[in-house]
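Hello Y.,

Per our agreement to keep a running log of every chain we model this quarter, I'm adding this entry. I've kept the format consistent with earlier entries: sequence first, then predicted structure.
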Amino acid sequence: MSCEKTSCKKGGIIVIGATGFIGMYTIRQLIAEGRKVYATGRNKQLGAVLEDMGAEFIELDITCEKDYEKLPTENIDGVILLAGLLPANATADLEENENAADYFEVNVIGTIKVLEFCRKNKIKKLISNSSYSDVAGAWRKGYAIKETEPRDFHFTGDHAVYVISKNAACDVMEYYNQQHNMQCAWFRFPPVYGVGPHSVIYVNGKYYKSGVQTFIENAQQGNDIEIWGDPHITRDIIYVKDVAKAYCMALDSDKTRGLYNMTSGTELDLEDQVKAIIEVFGDPDNRSSIVYRPDKPNNTPSFLFDMSKAKEDFGFVPQYTSYIDMMKDYKDELESGKWDELVNSRKKEQ
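Predicted structure for the entry above:
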């Protein structure tokens, strides 16, 4: 059956927070599958990019009640909620300006407004996301973390209130599942890799270049790359194209409900990651050397997530499970120029 014929039987999808990194990839996947897509966000320039891709762009702030009047209410199959306040995008320095209220206003109250829009318009499916740090206490324990793992997280640091707010938002979604018979689900993401505006991120209100971006730039220039601490520390990550595919598959399943680990399900070794970056981004005539610095502290968390629930409920199996495959596609996407506006969007904010 062709995609065109299949799409005739399906309604539209609303993606709230579509002008973000994951949102734009998800929009592309939905459109490729023949879906009618309504994309919301606050960035008009990226909205124009989404319209060029084939989506209908609607300017919307999830905290603004009146903005929801702009959204379509007929023939909508589901909503993907990606909008939110993240520490990597938060400018507040916690030593000077506590921003706990901002996280609750956006991540909790904003989620409730989206849930009410869905409930009032009989849209049963809503898929959002949660923080992988909600089970930080299980990191480095040597087993694959399941969705049934009890919450155990830190109450200090610039991620603390973010995690608390996302936990609260997920609990409210479960309330709507049980109280209003909705079909809400949320994905627990580790770091998501792919082309986007995250080469530079906020950490406690200050800009820093990401570790991956630093490795890539050093590889391109043939500079030595230092690995601090244990070179064989492992963690589970996911590639953005797998995320986009997972959202589409979850929307199409009547079993989708509750929390899902959404990762590669693979332990990726730090040394192997650096070697892959050197191979993909390095100059063959001027290869970077790896310098091992066990004397330097490395606070990278180590974890692995169990992926069986997503496979059982909606058939999801990640395609990108090796780091070198991720980096090869990352480079192709970066050099294609398709995401230039997205990549540069952070620079325009500064």
